[in-house]
Amino acid sequence: MLELHSLTAGYDRRSPVFREVSLSIAPGEAVGLLGPSGCGKSTLARVAALLHEPDAGRVVIDGTAAGGWRHRAPREQRTAFGVVFQQPRLSADPRLRLSDLIAEPLRANGRGAEVPGRVAELTALVGLGEELLGRRPHEVSDGQLQRACLARALVLRPRWLVCDEMTAMLDASTTAALVAVVEQYRRDTGAGLLAVGHDRVLLKRWCERTVEWRDLAERAAAGLG
Ligand SMILES: Nc1ncnc2c1ncn2[C@@H]1O[C@H](COP(=O)(O)OP(=O)(O)OP(=O)(O)O)[C@@H](O)[C@H]1O
């Protein structure tokens, strides 16, 4: 279970982006979070994945309260999450070849021995041609780079996936392919998913449950957070 309890977060403690927001995702569940631009969906997603420290509230991951955020999060909790962002070019080191980009989390966690096997498996899973593995981000398309970023997010076999507008920059066929990869991974592993976006049709089709930001905010304001 991924539990977000009464989270208050933002970028200035005096005026947080949201207050007292709560949301829970059951093991293996796919939840879509819909809301207008700027309401705080990405901020909530980053807090959920332990990438942004909230001002108040708790994140509980499979029964254990988050022990920190970013590099201060315990490794076991940090690696429980795979995260894919909207803009692959902002989340990919431009100096890395795609094979090293995908392998980065394994090396950072002292699991370099697994690199050849996992990179080959994931390259096939996300539909990335092997000839692209030696290229750097500026030598591939947005869709190809996002496939590599999805492979990187899956490489440690996370129990939770957070996809923050993962397909917003992609065409319909790449969107369908990446959603299919996430769903295949979830079927194989039982991972849970928080998918953030504006595309109501996509999220309703993709996720078992969709949540409107407005409803989360109303519950919070009513003290039901
Ligand atoms: N690094 C930052 N520093 C300061 N303010 C920020 C930062 N990132 C986001 N914000 C602000 O926080 C608010 C919420 O942003 P957030 O990205 O969480 O919204 P969102 O709902 O995901 O929007 P979108 O759908 O457009 O991605 C916005 O007003 C935004 O300008």
UniProtKB/TrEMBL annotation:
PROSITE patterns on file: ABC_TRANSPORTER_2 (PS50893)
GO molecular function: ATP binding
UniProt-recorded name of the protein: ABC transporter ATP-binding protein
Species of provenance: Streptomyces monticola
Membership in a protein family: Belongs to the ABC transporter superfamily.
Domain annotation ABC transporter: ranges: 2-224
Transmembrane segments: none
Keyword terms: ATP-binding, Nucleotide-binding, Transport
